[in-house]
Amino acid sequence: MDLSKIPNIKFSDSNNFFLLSGPCAIEGEDMALRIAEKVVSITDKLEIPYVFKGSFKKANRSRIDSFTGIGDEKALKILRKVSETFNIPTVTDIHEVNDAKLAAEYVDILQIPAFLVRQTDLVVAAAETGKVVNLKKGQFMSPEAMKHAVTKVTDCNNEQVMVTDRGTMFGYQDMIVDFRGIPTMREFAPTVLDVTHSLQQPNQSSGVTGGRPDMIETIARAGVVNKVDGLFIETHFDPANAKSDGANMLDLSYLEKLLSNLVAIRKTVNSL
Asked: Are 126 and 154 contacting, i.e. CB atoms less than 8 angstroms apart?
C-alpha cells in the first residue's frame, strides 16, 4: 500500500506513523465535526498523516437493544461532510457485501471488522471497489493467517491494503496484544495497531463490553517502539456517554499529549 495514494492524506512523507482516529460510531453531525476538528488541529501541528474514523452502523453489538446507528445513508453523508469540511480521508467498517458499494460512494477506506475478516465474499466486495481496504485481524487468528486475507484483496488487483491488530482473545473476557505479530504482519502489508479495541474486556455478564482506557498510552508506546506503521485510536469528548465502546475510548482531551509523546518516541526509533 502506498500511503500517499489515499485521497487527501497529508504529511505522508513525514516519517511519522499514520493515524486512524475518531468516534466508534457516528452519533450525529455536530459530534463528528467537533471530534474531527480537534484531531485535525492536533495532527496538523504534529505532522501526522490522519484518517477520520467513524462507523456508519454497528452490526456486532452484544445486546439487541444496543445502539446500532442513526441510519446508513445519513451517517455516510456525515462522513462525506467531515471529509469535505476538513479535506481529510475517511474510513468506515462494512458488514455485508451490499455495504461495500454503498460505503465506497462516501469514504476512502473500507474496513473489514475482525469478526468478519474470514468472510471471503465481503473481503472481495471491498477489494473490487478499488478503495483502500483495512483488514482487522480476527481475535481468533494468528498473525501468520492474515497473509491469506491480504491475498484475497491483492488477487482482486487491488494493492491498496493494510492490516490492523486489535488484540487476541485471552480467556473469555480479556484481550492481549502479542507484539511478535507486528513484524510478521508487516511482511504482508502496512500494519496498524488498534490501541483502544485491544483494551476491550468483552463478554461481560451485563452485555456491555468493558475496557481499560488507562492502558492506552502503554499499548500505544509499545506499538510505536516496535515500528508499527499506523495507530488506530477511538476517541470521544464524552466517552462515558458515547453510544458505543465508551468503556475503552480515549477522552479527546488527552489525545494531544498522547500523540506528542508518541511522535517523540517515533523520532527516537527512526534514529536508531
From this structure: no
